[in-house]
Write a structure and sequence with these properties.
Structural class: alpha+beta
Number of strands: 10
Radius of gyration: 16 Å
Length: 187
Amino acid sequence: MGKQYGFCINIDRCVQCHACEVACKAHNDVELGIAWRKVIGLWSGRYPDLTNRTISYSCMHCGEPACVAVCPQGAITKRPEDGIVVVDRSECIGCESCAEACPFGAPQHGRDGKMQKCDLCAGRLAQGKQPVCVETCPGEALQFGTTEQLSELAAPKQVQKLAGPTRPSVLISSSVWATLQSNVAWK
């Protein structure tokens, strides 16, 4: 396989504005009730010592995507040139096997019953642009690139690759990494 694109999420820089969600929804004309990018709150601690941070996430474009493995039609594929997980909606039969298999809740089914999810703004990438969520983030909490580029950028910032059997292509601030690994119900 060629390069693997992904995201680096610096939770400490997120200002909880949801601009990434709005930009994604508007750019991709995502129907009401569906979110290709989600911002969720992460609460940790016990009262009165509670902390709240947010994380913006989308499809993780996994190294070994569970959705690809279970799709009976082969409608979901991982592009060998860049690792982007894409769906051919014309091939989707709406069985929702992908939604059940994905530990992150990325595949969603709209009114037409067909699966839809983040494609890393593949059309924008082909034009040499960043994904719209990254371009829109005022706090620069989201970064995009190959996993190698992101690892180099992240090294001095205490960022780790999100772990899991699907090998997500996401690096995240290590200050909340343990919380994510053990406490977040992604779906």
